[in-house]
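Sequence, please.
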């Protein structure tokens, strides 16, 4: 299917589909006229990519995961899945640490504002 139909079917804009291709996340086929040709398996991959991006994972991590899926039959899926989940957990932990720092900063600012209002600053 052409990019317009792929966009409609996947719910992802044509611009995003081209971006996913530029980032190496998908490789659509090409018609004889040079137009992109999206097969059902590429659409399935787009849906996975969209879900992972919506959960906040960086493109780098998604690309590494998707590349590991196409490395060949000698790579065990259990190993790939375990490594990916480890990376996701690590990313989540770093995110949680950043949230904790931001929460502490917010609490400090709230305390400052309370004190400023109390003393009339």
């Amino acid at each position: 299917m052409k990019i317009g139909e792929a966009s409609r079917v996947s719910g992802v804009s044509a611009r995003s589909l081209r971006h996913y291709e530029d980032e190496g996340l998908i490789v659509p086929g090409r018609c004889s006229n040079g137009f992109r040709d999206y097969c059902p398996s590429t659409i399935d991959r787009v849906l996975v990519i969209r879900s992972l991006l919506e959960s906040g994972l960086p493109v780098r991590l998604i690309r590494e995961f998707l590349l590991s899926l196409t490395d060949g039959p000698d790579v065990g899926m259990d190993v790939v899945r375990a490594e990916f989940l480890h990376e996701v957990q690590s990313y989540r932990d770093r995110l949680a640490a950043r949230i904790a720092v931001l929460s502490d900063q917010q609490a400090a600012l709230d305390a400052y504002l309370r004190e400023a209002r109390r003393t009339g600053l």
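The helical segments are 3-10, 14-22, 40-54, 59-69, 77-119.
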